[in-house]
Amino acid sequence: MELTRTEYIILIVLILNAVVALICLIWNKIRGTKQHWIKFWIMIICPVAGFLYYVLSWLFWKIASGIGMEIDLKDVIFGKDRVKTQIKADENREKNILPLEEAVLVGDSKNQRLAMMNAIKGDISESLAAISLALGSKDSETAHYAASALTSVLNEFRITVSKMMQKLEEEEPEETQAEEELLNYMDDVLRQRVFSDLEQDRFVHIMERAAEELFKKDAAKLTAGQYESVCLRLLEIGDTEMSEKWCLRQAAQYPEQLSSFTCKLKLYFTLWEREKFFQTMDELKKSKVVINSETLEIIRIFSGGRAS
Q1: Which residues contact 31 (CB under 8 A, 6 or more apart)?
Q2: How far is CA 177 from CA 29, 165, 187, 197, 254, in A?
Q3: Alpha-carbon distance 119 to 146, whole Å?
Q4: Buried b (16+ CB within 10 A) or exposed e, 254-282
Q5: pLDDT in tens, 137-149
Q6: pLDDT for the residue 85
Q7: Which of 157, 224, 242, 148 is nearest to 193 (CA)?
């Protein structure tokens, strides 16, 4: 049976699509790219469209990495409630952060500008929560400094995470450097919670996926600090089920670390699960781990709440 012109063109396109999909499969397999079979079958099942999707995605990533992406300031939380989630400042950071917080809360425009200028002169990566307070300042100059500083940092964070994820995709199966770097880099910003809830949720789950990859490759390389970061960031966004999974993994790998107990205590405190909370507390009492004041406060509040 002789093919019509249209059928002939469709057949040629399908053959070329299959050849391109096969070449991409071989290339991705040589490079060690993950999910190469999935990409191959998507190209086969969705002729032309599947190939264009991956090409355009790659081009978009390259453009975004090269020139940066503008960030809408609505992604930044303006509320003063961020003070509650900010980590304690160390001695070096207190010199600039505490005066800034005080100036914003008091509403002193002159001191706000001076404190803001002092804060942004140095490394502001650990001062984002304090700087975000100044976005709501009545003084336009202070708000402008804060917006410029945060926009720059958030932009850099997004682009860097994108590049790190690409590096993770391209690394060899036995390599773990990308996962380790990604976990440490992301937590430094995410623990300050300067993104909107939606943005924070997305980045925390990217962080969790990196931790899962590292856990599968070599769990021994996950530090107690990294476990704690993943547990707490997941708890903050309300993903208690995933947080509990990492809490239990941490307790199994680091049974004598305080964070293995505090993460579970915070989780069960949030869920108000009395039995699990006091079971964890009993385990902590029986261990040789030294309890800090924060842990004692959690136990006191929980116990007081039950008593009332």
Answers
A1: 170
A2: 20, 12, 16, 29, 21
A3: 10
A4: beebbbbbbbbbbbbbeeebeeebbebbe
A5: 666 666 666 677 7
A6: 39
A7: 157
Can you read off the two tokens belonging to residue 226?
Answer: 């990294």
Are the C-beta atoms of 162 and 173 separated by less than 8 Å? no
Phi, psi of 224 (to 5 degrees): -60, -35
Give the integer Cα–Cα distance in Å for 306 and 272. Answer: 10
DSSP-derived letter for residue 219 is: G
Give pLDDT tens digits for 21-49. Answer: 888 878 777 665 556 677 777 788 888 88
Q: List, as own/partner pairs, every contact residues 158-164 make where C-beta atoms lie below 8 angstroms and the sequence separation is at least 24, other chains included.
A: 158/69, 158/71, 159/64, 159/65, 159/68, 159/69, 160/185, 161/185, 161/186, 161/203, 161/206, 162/61, 162/64, 162/65, 163/65
Q: How far apart are CA 174 and CA 252, in angstroms?
A: 23
Count other C-beta atoms under 10 Å from residue 123's C-beta.
10
Neighbours of 42 (CB within 10 A): 16
- Single-letter residue type at 114: L
Q: What is the pLDDT of residues 98-131, one digit of tens each?
A: 445 554 554 555 555 555 555 555 555 555 766 6
- At 224, the pLDDT band (50, 70, 90 cuts) reads very high
State how far the alpha carbon of 193 is from the alpha carbons of 48, 137, 158, 246, 291, in Å.
41, 19, 14, 20, 27
